[in-house]
Amino acid sequence: MGSAVTKEVKTGLRSRVLAARAEWPAELRTAASAAIRSKLEALPELRAARAVLAYAAFGAEVDLDPWLERLMSSGVGVFLPWVDGERLGIARVDNLHADLVPGWRGVREPRAIGRRPARPDRVKAVVTPGVAFDRAGGRLGYGGGHFDRLLAELTPSTPVVGVAFELQIIPSVPNEPHDRPVDVVVTERAVYRGRLGK
After folding, report:
1. Distance (Å, rounded) from C-alpha 110 to C-alpha 125?
2. H helices within the chain, ranges in order?
3. What are the distances in angstroms from CA 89 to CA 7, 74, 169?
4. Per-residue confidence of the chain (198 residues) as pLDDT tens digits?
């Protein structure tokens, strides 16, 4: 599959999945987000991690805020990204209300004042959003390539966990050479470990 064809297929998939997610009633998204957070609590890849890179939910994404707050209150270092041109920087946050401001496209990110950039290779686990995933760990991002570039900077052994609603799981994500699959995908219904073979 040529690169131009792959990009066209990805664009069509993004539009379809994002539309379906946006149409899902808010109360169902809220309940599904709570179920996903419960699964993250029990996930072995995250249980012992003392430095976790995650994201601040935007729009209809899986809401991780209560889980992030619990991590912070238990002394886990929580790192969130911000858009820095073509790449993502990351910084530790201690308070989701005080430390975050609307950034690129309105996404909440660490405020510039007092922000101390951190090295991605220092985090011990990653929880990433996506537009769509497949059960083997294929991830379809939002199209900017920001998270793929950031994931390339991780230590290779760092577990990467994708989170999404079950309606975002598709049979197969078309991939390109720069695409980084995730190790585990967590939805409100299941934990998929296709890449790990478990």
Report:
1. 19
2. 3-23, 26-42, 44-47, 65-73, 146-151
3. 25, 24, 28
4. 456 657 888 889 999 999 999 999 999 999 999 999 999 999 999 998 999 999 999 999 999 999 999 999 999 999 999 988 778 899 999 999 999 988 877 789 999 988 889 999 889 999 999 999 999 999 998 877 788 888 888 888 899 999 999 999 999 998 877 778 899 999 999 999 975 544
**Residue 137 DSSP code:** S
Q: Is the Cβ–Cβ distance between 100 and 108 less than 8 Å?
A: yes
- The beta-carbon contacts of 104-113 under 8 Å, at least 24 apart in sequence, are 105/58, 106/58, 107/56, 107/58, 107/83, 108/56, 108/58, 108/80, 109/56, 109/80, 109/81, 109/82, 109/83, 110/80, 110/82
Domain boundaries defined on the chain:
3-192
Statement: 3-192 belongs to CATH 3.30.499.10:
no
What number of other Cβ atoms are within 10 A of residue 126's Cβ? 26
Nearest to 24 by CA among 65, 60, 58: 60
Other C-beta atoms lying within 10 Å of the C-beta of residue 54: 26
* Closest-CA residue to 99 (of 78, 76, 118): 78
